[in-house]
Amino acid sequence: MESIIDPNKVISDQYAATSYYLKDGSSILGRFKNETKDKIFISQNPFSPQTLRAINKKDVVVTSVSKLSIMMPGMINSLNKEELKDLIAYLISGGSKENKVFKPAVKQ
Question: How many whole angstroms separate alpha carbon 62 and alpha carbon 24?
């Protein structure tokens, strides 16, 4: 839940992004996916990780692990009441459909 509320607080290695600083003074942020002899391929959109951007290796001056997450801050604010309830139930249950949070309430 913390990562959804504040994606930059703690970033797991498996989700870490890299900053690529280029000769022209610009920088590009993304998750490393693959490379060839001449290019680096990164994913910049967590909702479309298969969409890759190519960076020419000869244009890269410096790379560093980013302290910023590629997950956008404030995403939780876009959830409606039902989506938020579903998210909390999922987190409480550990993703198990058999958990009691998914069972109908018993009327007494």
Answer: 12
Q: What is the pLDDT of residues 52-61, one digit of tens each?
A: 999 999 999 9
**Regarding the domain delimited by 1-70, which CATH topology (the fold level of the hierarchy) does it fall under?**
SH3 type barrels. (2.30.30)
Q: What CA–CA distance (Å, rounded) separates 50 from 56?
A: 19
**Residue 73 token pair:** 């801050």
d(CA 88, CA 83): 9
Could you give the CA distance from residue 70 to residue 31 in angstroms, rounded to a whole number? 8
pLDDT (tens digit per residue) in 84-108: 888 888 888 887 878 887 777 777 6
Any idea where the domains of the chain sit in the sequence? Answer: 1-70, 73-103
